[in-house]
Structure formats: C-alpha cells, structure tokens
Design a protein that fits this description.
The protein is mostly helical and 164 residues long. The chain folds into two domains: 72 residues, Rna Polymerase Sigma Factor, Chain: A (Orthogonal Bundle); 75 residues, Arc Repressor Mutant, subunit A (Orthogonal Bundle), CATH 1.10.10. It has seven helices and no strands.
C-alpha cells in the first residue's frame, strides 16, 4: 500500500485539484482517496491502468466532499502541491500561472462537464473508459464533452474580455 501511495499521491492530488477541490482541502482528500483504496484493494481487479481506478475514486470523493461542504471561501490562488519541477524559475512561474488559469476556467464549468473534459483532454482517457468510470452511457459522454468544450471556450473568451 505504501508503494501505491508513493507512486500515485501526486497524481491523485492533481486530479482532485482539477476536479474542483480547493487547495486547502487537497491533502485531506488525498488521504480520503487512499482510505477508500485501502478498503477496496482486496476487491480490485486489475483490468488496465491503476490511474483509471484511482480517478473513479477521486470523482466520488470530490462529489461527496462537495455535498458535505459549503463553498463559502474564494478559490485559493496558489497551486499547492503542484510545484513545477523546472530549473528555470521564470518558466516555473509562467507554468504555475497557466495551471492556475486552467484551474480557474475549469472551476467555472458544471461538475459533470468539468469531469468529462478533465478525463478526456488532460488525463487522455477514451470515451468508453470515461463512460465506464462515470457509469453513464457513452453517448452522454460524447455530448458532455462537446458541451464542455463549448462552455470552456465561452468562459475563456469572457475571461480574456474582462482582462482587456
């Protein structure tokens, strides 16, 4: 279990963040994910990448967390736990700013659209796998992906217009 944690903790933290978890909550949610993993590992049947299994657990943990908490705080500006491993500090700052901007834009999408978009575009899952992970028909995944891309484009255009 400790090697599973060591190998996947950063991945889980990144997924949780992209699914909308606040930076202040990410460490606690990572622990929650691995508590679920510990309980479910005897029943786990390896049928592909462990990352897909972990992503499914992350989806459910974030959804449960959202139901338990009220989002009264503003989104934090830092990308804690997502430090860039780049020797050039200027490049690291630019990459951190881009990650923050992406997180902000994704945070403006409806959760079901954000989940499909993150799975497909960032985690590079195919639509059949996404349908299985989300327990939805593959046609729904395709329509949500299309809607998510349009919504992200609209949100990005509004953000750019507000900057000008």
């Amino acid at each position: 279990m400790s090697s599973l944690y060591a190998t996947n903790a950063r991945y889980v933290a990144r997924v949780l963040r992209r699914l909308g978890a606040l930076p202040a909550d990410v460490d606690d949610l990572v622990q929650e994910v691995f508590i679920v993993v510990l309980r479910r590992i005897p029943d786990y049947e390896y049928r592909g990448r462990t990352a897909g299994w972990l992503f499914g657990i992350c989806l459910r943990v974030v959804a449960a967390h959202r139901r338990r908490t009220v989002r009264a705080q503003a989104r934090a500006a830092s990308a804690a736990g997502l430090s860039c491993e780049v020797a050039d500090p200027e490049r690291a700052a630019v990459e951190q700013a881009r990650r923050h901007e992406l997180d902000e834009l994704l945070g403006r999408l409806a959760p079901e659209l954000r989940q499909v978009l993150v799975l497909f575009e960032i985690e590079e899952r195919d639509c059949q796998e996404i349908a299985r992970l989300m327990a939805t028909p593959v046609g729904t995944v395709y329509s949500r992906l299309h809607a998510a891309r349009l919504a992200l484009a609209r949100v990005a255009l509004r953000a750019r217009a507000n900057e000008a």
